[in-house]
């Protein structure tokens, strides 16, 4: 598994991964907005599929699978990160980041991929955009993600946002203070 910065070429694969894994979905424009505004804020996890062969017609179907974004490369997870760009909030707070979305394809879970994506994102938002803290929302019922944020990455719950999600579920609003490398 390789973790690398996400590029515009990856957007379709990221969107496909998101559609398969989460009910919170975004327009292509919103992915584009993240990558154009904060190119060092989003990352993908990929594997290389050696069985894909250019000359073999039967592989066309593999290229059609929209989570293969480059030749032989298959996106299996992503993290979509941004900086706070709301003028009202910027006036009140130090530079801070936000994790918009994170997901890993089912068959690649529990291998440490989400932790790697998150650590890379947090490090990059601090180093490149001077984020002093990073926040995110997560469903109250999302045990896997809560374990990752709370126990593995030491995020703290700041508040509960009532009926944050469209289906009426509450969200934990979580935050992690980051320390810049000198
Ligand atoms: N139940 C309990 N703990 C779990 C689970 C689970 N189902 N899955 C992972 N964990 C724990 C791991 O054991 C590990 O803990 P450790 O550090 O104590 O060993 C930690 O969480 C990190 O595990 P990873 O292997 O890095 O996580 P993974 O790659 O499996 O991805 C994720 C976790 C992203 C939550 C995945 O399950 C997923 O894609 N779920 C669906 C989408 C989703 O819920 N995304 C997050 C929404 S919130 C947001 O986007 C801001």
TrEMBL record:
PROSITE patterns: GNAT (PS51186). SUPFAM superfamilies: Acyl-CoA N-acyltransferases (Nat). Residues 1-179 form the N-acetyltransferase domain. Keywords: Acyltransferase, Transferase. InterPro entries: Acyl_CoA_acyltransferase, Ard1-like, GNAT_dom. One of its GO terms (cellular component) is NatA complex. Belongs to the acetyltransferase family. ARD1 subfamily. The keyword Transferase applies. It comes from the Eukaryota. This is N-acetyltransferase domain-containing protein. Pfam families: Acetyltransf_1. GO terms for molecular function: identical protein binding; protein N-terminal-serine acetyltransferase activity; protein-N-terminal-glutamate acetyltransferase activity.
